[in-house]
Amino acid sequence: MKKLISALKLMLVMMKTGFFTFGGGYAMISMLHGEFTEKRKYLSHDEFMDVVAVAESTPGPIAINMSTYIGYKRCGFIGALLSTLGMCAPSFLVIFIISLFFDRFLEITWVANAFRGIQIAVIYIILSAGIKMLKQLKKSPVNIVILCVTATLMVLFSIFSVSFSAVFYILISGGIGLVIFLVKYIKERKGGGSK
Predict the structure, then answer these.
(1) Where do runs of H (alpha helix) occur along the chain?
(2) How many CB atoms lie within 10 A of CB 9?
(3) Of the residues 137, 152, 175, which one is the last residue of a structural domain?
(4) Nearest to 65 by CA among 47, 78, 77, 83
(5) pLDDT for 31-88, tens place per residue?
(6) Mean pLDDT score across all residues of the chain
(7) 46 φ, ψ to 5°?
(8) Whether 28 and 120 share a structural domain
């Protein structure tokens, strides 16, 4: 019963995030970070960064993947189920209602202008989340090199209209991290075995 109550509370937090965050999953990262690492202390910053990496590299929207993981970590299967439902329900309801009269809705001048303003705010929210995560990134030479190379490639590919999925950046960076880990592991095993 205790788990169910905790899962229901988690569902309400996810619903709040779903209702009051515009701009999709990436815009929700900042709100989820504030809610679960700073306010509620459910996750450490490093664990939250791992959740972002896993949620981005698995199929599906990032915010839903993150909510499923956080729900599972806190309350098991029922937490994952209710957290996911809490994150999805607000978006589904809003989109369903808007879809009923979307064309007429956008014909209203002040509504169209409001959406333009929201677009600008969404860019800020996503940028803010990225800067916050960047500040808290461990400043190792490998991390800095991967970040600089990835950012440079993203800009160059955008300028020259080269189609390259963000998934490949994640897979390549993960592969590099795995190779570095294996090299360190092998060196430690050899160093430990010779003593």
Answers:
(1) 2-20, 25-33, 45-57, 62-100, 102-107, 109-135, 141-159, 166-193
(2) 16
(3) 137
(4) 83
(5) 888 889 989 898 998 899 889 888 888 888 888 999 999 999 999 999 999 999 999 9
(6) 87
(7) -60, -40
(8) yes
Identify whether residues 143 and 132 lie together within a single domain.
no
On the 0-12 / 13-18 / 19+ scale of CB atoms within 10 A, 158 is exposed
* CA–CA dist 36, 108 (Å, integer): 38
Cβ–Cβ under 8 Å, residues 27 and 126: yes
Sole residue written with tokens 């960047």: 134
Under 8 Å between Cβ of 132 and 52:
no
Give the residue numbers spanning the domain of 75. 2-137
Give the number of domains in the chain: 2
Amino acid found at 154? M
Global pTM value: 0.64
Are 8 and 86 part of one and the same domain?
Answer: yes
> For 60, phi and psi rounded to 5 degrees?
110, 165
Burial environment of residue 53 by CB neighbours within 10 A (0 to 12, 13 to 18, 19 or more): middle
24 with 7, same domain: the answer is: yes
- The residue among 121, 137, 153 that closes a domain is 137
41 and 111, same domain (yes or no): yes
Three-class SS state of 114 = helix
User: Do both 56 and 146 map to the same domain?
Assistant: no
Q: How far is CA 114 from CA 74, 96, 117, 120, in A?
A: 37, 19, 5, 10
**Same domain, residue pair 90 and 171:** no
